[in-house]
Amino acid sequence: MEVEFRSVSYSVGARAILRGLTFHLSAGDTLVLLGASGSGKTTALKMVNAMLLPSAGEVVVGGRRTTEWDPIALRRQIGYVIQEGGLFPHLTVAANVGIVPRLEDWPPERVRERVESLLNDVQLPPAEYAGRIPRELSGGQRQRVGVARALAADPGLLLFDEPFGALDPITRLDLRRQFLALRERYRKTAVFVTHDIGEALRLGTHVGLLHEGRLEAMVPASEFRRVDNVRVQEFLACLET
Ligand SMILES: Nc1ncnc2c1ncn2[C@@H]1O[C@H](COP(=O)(O)OP(=O)(O)OP(=O)(O)O)[C@@H](O)[C@H]1O
Ligand SMILES: [Mg+2]
């Protein structure tokens, strides 16, 4: 599903949080929004699934403005992964992963097959993990359940808000590899938020750098190192430390 921002601004009272964002994301691409804490990454992501609407400009998802979409219908088309997975704590892993297919009235047998296949995809063998509840999992395992849940109803678009931020470096590397493998397999359009420049360059086909609500750069990942912009250079300097 394509995503387009046309001069999108967002303000709370007199405070400008996003300022004139313009970009186009083609189907199958992964845009990484990179930026320091408070730069507006989560706010920009919430504009995509209509959790927030622009104060000015427009966000177009799948050819339709977010103001024209029924927000519930839009969110059914979008898998959303947040830190720690955002799972329902009282539901089993299988129930968490199958939640959107069940809401869409898939027959139980088809839901079960889909859940098992996705748990295998994220390396959580269903025989061992399907019946557990989230607090019986590690943080990295919960994160993988969150990814499986986001993929479950075959959405046209995936949003990731710093999903690997709280994990140790080994687990993070493992989950990044799985992310790339899943991307190869499913070819989903994705927007991925991070403050980690290394992660941005590894995972993005495109990288957008946000600074104080403005896009300082929006380029194919392979060109990011050559961007002549002071904020880009600041982030690149972090790679060497
Ligand atoms: N509802 C709100 N009312 C007022 N200010 C807000 C609101 N939501 C976000 N902000 C402010 O907007 C700015 C951007 O917030 P946002 O959550 O998008 O940042 P972020 O880039 O995701 O940061 P982090 O990396 O810490 O998650 C911050 O300064 C934040 O305090
Ligand atoms: Mg955030």
Give your account of this protein's structure.
The chain is α/β, with parallel strands linked by helices and 241 residues long. It folds into two domains: 1-69 and 155-241, Rossmann fold; 78-153, no CATH class. Helices cover 37% and strands 26% of the residues. It contains ten helices and ten strands. Helix 5 (108-121) crosses helix 7 (139-151). The protein is globular, with a radius of gyration of 18 Å. The relative contact order is 0.18. Adenosine-5'-triphosphate binds at residues 12, 17, 35, 37-43, 195. Residues 41-42, 161 line the site of magnesium ion.
What is the fold's blueprint, element by element?
Elements lengths: L2 E10 L2 E11 L4 E6 L5 H8 L7 E6 L2 E2 L5 H6 L1 E4 L11 H5 L1 H5 L4 H14 L4 H4 L9 H13 L5 E5 L7 H18 L2 E6 L2 H7 L2 E6 L2 E7 L9 H10 L2
Parallel strand pairs: 3-8, 3-9, 6-7, 7-8
Antiparallel strand pairs: 1-2, 1-4, 4-5, 9-10
Helix pairs in contact: 5-7
The chain binds adenosine-5'-triphosphate and magnesium ion.
**CATH topology-level name of the largest domain:** Rossmann fold
Return the structural class. alpha/beta
CATH superfamily membership of the largest domain: P-loop containing nucleotide triphosphate hydrolases
- Total number of helical segments? 10
Percent range for β-strand residues: 25-35%
Q: What integer is the average pLDDT?
A: 93
Report the bound ligands by name, code or SMILES: adenosine-5'-triphosphate, magnesium ion
Radius of gyration: 18 Å
Model regions low in confidence, pLDDT < 50 over at least 5 residues: none
CATH class of the largest domain: Alpha Beta
Q: Give the overall shape.
A: globular
Number of strands: 10
Helix and strand sequence: EEEHEEHEHHHHHEHEHEEH
For the record, the CATH architecture of the largest domain stands as 3-Layer(aba) Sandwich
Q: How many domains make up the coordinates?
A: 2
The helix content is 25-40%
For the biggest sheet, the summary is:
6 strands, mixed
For the biggest β-sheet, the strand order reads: 6-7-8-3-9-10
What gap, in angstroms, lies between the N and C termini?
37 Å
